[in-house]
Write a structure and sequence with these properties.
Blueprint lengths: L7 H6 L4 H8 L3 H10 L4 E7 L5 E3 L2 E2 L3 H5 L5 E2 L17 E12 L6 E10 L2 E2 L4 H14 L2 E16 L5 E3 L20 H20 L4 E6 L5 E6 L2 E2 H21 L3 E3 L13 E9 L2 E5 L11 H12 L1 H8 L27 E2 L1 E3 L6 E3 L6 E3 L8 H17 L17 H6 L3 E2 L4 H10 L1 H7 L1 H19 L4 H7 L4
Parallel strand pairs: 1-6, 17-18
Antiparallel strand pairs: 1-2, 1-3, 4-5, 5-6, 6-7, 8-9, 8-11, 8-12, 8-13, 8-14, 10-11, 14-15, 14-19, 16-20, 18-19
Helix pairs in contact: 5-10, 7-10, 8-10, 9-12, 10-13, 12-14, 13-14
InterPro entries: Gln_synt_N, Gln_synt_N_sf, Gln_synth/guanido_kin_cat_dom, Gln_synth_cat_dom
Family: Belongs to the glutamine synthetase family.
Keywords: ATP-binding, Ligase, Nitrogen fixation, Nucleotide-binding
């Protein structure tokens, strides 16, 4: 937090002090403690979320549970480890207050529980706490009469180490240098699904046991790649679920001698691993009523069009959050030579929307009334992503923004000139382009707050510069003997 804070900006955008958060917890402590003790929990990991969306913690025994919930648990020098250099070694530590609506007993070891927490600094919300940024966006949406909901489609690749210590696909019985099927052998395949079931059964049982209403597991296009489809919920709970899911996936894989990677594009021939965000809105005063659905010919409301226009308006800056790594942009291309399953990637490359059009960034699906952003992956900080989606969509609704006509045709087959003539913008080609868009976007400054936005841009700019200075194998093969 900047040295002169809490400043006017913080007073305007934050709505709950440390003391208020503690008082919100106080009446619920006995109920939650009893639930955990009856489940056999002995150790609690109250976890805050760093700038990358990764949970951090210090385990405490159940004997300290009450103190933990009252904000008297472990403190953290967050600024010493989390890429947020705005505080010095002489400044106060951050204090976390667990959210008792975000309690997850660890299925692989029920003696442990994870409780997601919010960070505070000197009695005010810490302004480099991404979970607080989402709670602020939710609070603002409710003030406008809306509640945001979302589902996420997480994709990941399961790997293992071979005898030489090299990481290889965990479910791939084809010889590395032999004949391989040319066209997408793994996608939807029954044989490979059966081979994967020892791992998948454990995962399915866990998700079902947590009540997430798992719909299916998909063997995706790349070898050893999977997608999980489970039910939507409010944006904060969905963000907590995704943060916990990343932990669950890694722990289950370890029990099978494997590991999970969320890297979007591990090799040239792989399909990209995405994490599409499907967002919808409900009226606060009319729970259960989807704002994006009406009785028109298309079934889609004016609010849905205005909301997608808001998302399109800020698409480049949003992509800096939803596709936050150098590697993310290797997947946002229309075609790849030597691709498993053909050459078309099915990845978004242009900022437009269409009805069930998977070549557009924003899809209005035929099976549900939500706005699907296809330019997202599992390396994102999902809390910041949800906050930005919600705020941008509401800006579109508030200003009745026009998204233009839908693009219900194959965008991959259009030439650059045709796209230009149609007024269709290209998604950022690199992390550098996306970060520059984030730098110029005023709404991003509001969603993240100026301190967190600057910290995020500083880290990601450094990431780009370090990558840009690296000499890759491709460059050596391409240029070393050519010139």
């Amino acid at each position: 937090m900047a040295k002169d804070t809490p400043n006017d900006f913080d007073k305007k955008i934050y709505y709950e002090t440390f003391d208020e958060a503690v008082e919100r917890n106080r009446p619920r402590i006995p109920e939650v403690r009893k639930m955990l003790e009856e489940a056999g929990v002995k150790y609690v990991m109250s976890s805050w979320i760093d700038l990358h969306g990764i949970p951090k913690t210090k385990p405490v025994p159940m004997s300290d549970f009450d103190e933990l919930c009252m904000g008297k648990g472990p403190q953290f020098a967050v600024h010493s480890i989390s890429f947020v250099p705005e505080l010095s070694p002489a400044d106060s530590d951050q204090v976390m207050v667990p959210d008792l609506d975000a309690v997850y007993i660890c299925p692989w070891d029920t003696s442990m529980a994870v409780i997601f927490a919010d960070l505070y600094w000197e009695n005010a919300p810490y302004n480099v706490c991404s979970r607080q940024a989402l709670k602020r966006a939710i609070h603002e949406a409710q003030a406008d009469g809306y509640v945001g909901y979302a589902g996420v489609e997480p994709e990941f690749i399961v790997m293992k180490y071979d005898d030489a210590g090299k990481p290889v696909k965990a479910f791939d019985d084809d010889p590395a240098h032999g004949l391989r099927p040319r066209r997408q052998a793994f996608g939807y395949d029954v044989e490979y699904t059966v081979d994967s079931m020892p791992f998948l059964k454990d995962l399915i049982d866990i998700l079902e046991g947590m009540g997430w209403n798992l719909h299916d597991v998909v063997a995706e296009g790349a070898y050893s790649q999977f997608e999980l489809d489970f039910h939507y919920t409010n944006m904060l709970e969905m963000s907590d679920r995704l943060a916990f899911l990343r932990i669950v996936l890694k722990e289950v894989a370890k029990e099978h001698g494997m590991f999970v990677t969320f890297m979007p594009k591990p090799t040239v021939g792989d399909w990209r691993s995405g994490a599409h965000i499907n967002m919808s809105l409900q009226h606060k005063s009319r729970p259960g009523e989807n704002v994006f659905k009406d009785d028109s010919d298309t079934g889609w409301s004016d609010e849905s069009r205005w909301a997608v226009a808001g998302l399109m308006q800020h698409a480049e800056a949003i992509t800096a959050i939803t596709c936050p790594t150098v590697n993310s942009y290797n997947g946002l291309v229309p075609r790849v030579g030597g691709f498993e399953g053909g050459t078309v990637t099915w990845a978004p490359t242009n900022i437009t929307y269409g009805f069930n059009n998977r070549s557009a960034q924003f899809r209005l699906p035929q099976s549900r009334y939500c706005l699907e952003n296809r330019a997202c992956d599992m390396t994102m900080n999902v809390y910041l992503a949800m906050a930005f989606h919600l705020t941008a969509a509401l800006e579109g609704i508030r200003n009745k923004m026009d998204p233009g006509k839908p693009t219900d045709f194959d965008l991959y087959s259009m030439s650059p000139q045709q796209l230009k003539d149609a007024g269709i913008r290209r998604l950022p080609r690199t992390l550098f382009n996306a970060i520059e868009a984030l730098r110029e976007d005023d709404l991003a400054k509001h969603v993240l707050g100026p301190v967190m936005r600057n910290s995020y841009m500083e880290y990601k700019s450094d990431e780009w510069e370090r990558y840009h200075q690296a000499v890759t194998d491709w460059e050596v093969k391409e240029y070393l003997r050519l010139y």
